[in-house]
Amino acid sequence: MFGKHIRLYLIGAVLGMLLLTGCWSRREIEELALVMAAAADAEGDNNVRLSVFIVNPREIGGGQPSGSGGGGGTNKVPGEIVSTTGSDFTEAARRIEEQIPRRLFWSHNRVIIVGDKLARRGLSWLDWFSRDRQMRLTTPVVLAPGEAREVLDLPPGVELVPGEIISGILNNHVTLKVELKELLSMWQAKGDNPVIPRITLVSAQEHSGSKTQGAGGTGQQSQEQGGGEGRTQRKAGPAAIRFEGAGVFKEGKLIGYLDHLETLGTMWLRGEVKEGVLTFNCPEHPSERVSVRFHRAQTQVTPQVEGDKITFLVKINSEGDLMEQTCQESLATPEKIEELEKALYHELNKRVQAALDKAQRELKTDIFGFGEVLHRENPKLWRQVEDNWNEIFAGAEVKLEAQVSIRRIGMSYNPAGGQGRNTGGKRVSPGGR
Question: Model confidence over 66-118: pLDDT tens digits?
Fold first, then answer.
């Protein structure tokens, strides 16, 4: 009887092992082409172009550079750019895999770069980037003038690959950052419209500050094409990128751009400012400058409705530290600090008003998410205005109440090189207030 139970247990164990599955979807890293940056462009009237930067593991992993032999080395190429076209991005991605010996792997992608022409065509391209299971919704999205493909020609610098360069700058919190999931949310919301940061290409002379470029250029290889339409090596291209303004979308299409000042104002109104620097004129000496670094900022938007009139009250609370002043004014008294805080408020208000004027008067588009705030606070009213919200937003009043505080002035209340013009009255501790 006991032996019969043992046999039954053994049979059950064997059957259970047959039902167990292994890692059926496993892929070895040697079989994958790791995409570190992707560029999306319009091609002709109806097609699209997908360009990817595929990292070369031998170069970024410390191995022997590809193509080097024995003694003399060659310029390291941290990756390869492959570009091809299709009627949509699914077809274009499949065509890329026809040119490389590995399967594209998207989970390490650091950035999606969108060309201006494709952005004006519309945001329908987002479907593939948001649907594929390998895509990360936290991937940043940026706009590029001309062709986005050109941005992939960035040479190695502090970071080796273009995707790391762009995402690293965005993580410095010095400019607007929009991730794929945020872009989708802004696009789908009736009370908001997408705003995407814009990058421009910088030449070697401008990047280094030199007036002339030596013979031999940047030392990059010229473009070569083989096996079809878009497999490329390094070509002479931009030396760096710079974030410059942002693109504004309405009804899913790019309609215009914000300049640098308007973009900063938009960040304050959207509550996107976490840290940063404001530079403004000295209160008593407008030709000289003061810089304050913010380390805390909070924006609260409250809709106020009186009859048919909609007003938005924007409250901004922020505090920061004095980083530099070129004017010879002593900050030994609280009154001097208050003068700086008033000047700081006026600078902040200038940025906010620049963004409001551009959005309400020229673009007539809510790029601040005010409609979504109204939707949450007053759903009944929102149902009445949602179909014409951008037009109603253009006529809405926006009131700014900002509380800006300078908490610390550094190691001294006097400017460098002098004792200051005003040292009378109650003094302030240099470390704080």
Answer: 444 444 444 556 889 999 999 999 999 999 999 998 889 999 999 999 999 99
Q: Quick one: 351 and 236 in the same domain? A: no
Asked if residue 8 belongs to a domain, the reply is: no
CATH code for the domain in which residue 398 is found? 3.30.300.210
Are 236 and 317 contained in the same domain? no
State which residues form the domain around 134.
28-59+77-212+220-258
Q: Taking all residues of the chain, what is their mean pLDDT, rounded to a whole number?
A: 82
- The number of beta carbons lying within 10 Å of the beta carbon of residue 376 is 11
Regarding whether 206 and 113 lie in a shared domain, the answer is yes
Last residue of a domain, one of 258, 283, 313: 258
Total-model pTM:
0.81
Q: Does 335 fall in a domain?
A: yes
Q: If you average pLDDT over residues 22-50, what whole number do you get?
A: 82
Q: Which of 258, 278, 312 is the last residue of a domain?
A: 258
120-125 mean pLDDT: 88
Could you tell me the two tokens for 207? 């990047």
Determine the straight-line distance between the first and last CA of the chain, rounded to whole angstroms. 87
Higher-scoring residue by pLDDT: 60, 120: 120
Is a pLDDT exceeding 50 seen at residue 56?
Answer: yes
260-270 helix and 334-357 helix, angle to the nearest 10 degrees:
100
Alpha carbons 171 and 262: distance in angstroms, whole number: 20
pLDDT at 333: 78
268 and 401 assigned to the same domain: yes
Please check whether residue 356 lies inside any domain of the structure.
yes
Helix (H, G, I), strand (E, B) or coil at 371: helix
Long-range contacts of 85-91 (CB under 8 A, 24+ apart): 85/43, 85/47, 85/48, 85/49, 85/50, 85/229, 85/230, 86/47, 86/48, 86/50, 87/46, 87/47, 87/48, 88/48, 88/128, 89/40, 89/48, 89/50, 89/125, 89/128, 89/129, 90/128
- Statement to judge: residues 189 and 303 lie in one domain: no
**400, pLDDT greater than 70:** yes
> What tokens were used for 251?
């009804």
Work out how many domains the chain is built from and give that number. 2
Q: Please state, as a whole number, how many other Cβ atoms lie within 10 Å of the Cβ of residue 323.
A: 15
How many residues does the structure list for the chain?
A: 433
Shared domain check, 287 and 250 = no
Dig out the tokens for 260 from the structure.
């640098």
Position 428 in a domain: yes
- Distance, in Å, from the CA atom of 319 to the CA atom of 154, rounded to the nearest integer, reads 37
Written as one letter, the residue type at 235 is K
